[in-house]
Amino acid sequence: MLKNEIDSRLLLEEGRRIILREAALLDDALWDEWLALYTPDSVFWMPTWRRCGTLTEDPGNEVSHIHVVGHAGFQERIMRIRSGRAAASRPLQRTSHLLSGTQFLEDPRSDFMRLRTAWVSHVYFPLAHVMETFFGHYEHDLQLQREWKIARKKVVLKNDYLPTMADFYCV
């Protein structure tokens, strides 16, 4: 086995570990630990479908399900969830994220990797006694700072009919 093959496997395993940790932190509602996985200037984006088969491409000029830039946006959302003022999260939904098939989208470097992961999220809405399933794929850009951090997360929601309010932790 060549050295770069070993390096690529180790990087992929590290990327998988971070993505799995992110999902577990969301399922356990450990918001501070979850946000600590992200760079301070990170981007979290869930585009909408412009038409069947075509996603929106410009979150600044087109509709997005979610578009948050930087920690401040999520700190405000997390504060609203904790305070009970977030209508979409009152009471807090229970989630279980299942991830599979993580792969590189481009050749990794020693300080950057772009990964794609298939996901399914089961969400229980306790107020309505209803369970929904969302699915799609993630694109994560990971940057090595002192440790690996998420610099960008794009959530492609394949079943984008949202029958109720859903927040970032549901996908």
Describe the structure in your own words.
With 171 residues, this protein is of the alpha+beta class. Helices cover 26% and strands 42% of the residues. It has three helices and eight strands; from the N terminus they run ααββββαββββ. Strand 2 and strand 3 (54-55) form a beta hairpin. The protein is globular, with a radius of gyration of 16 Å. The mean pLDDT is 91.
Mean pLDDT: 91
What is the radius of gyration computed over CA atoms, rounded to a whole number of angstroms?
A: 16 Å
Give the percentage of residues in beta strands.
35-45%
Largest sheet: 6 strands, mixed
Helical content class: 25-40%
Q: Multimeric state of these chains?
A: single chain
| Spatial gap, N to C terminus | 37 Å
Major sheet strand order: 4-1-8-7-6-5
- Low-pLDDT runs of 5+ residues are none
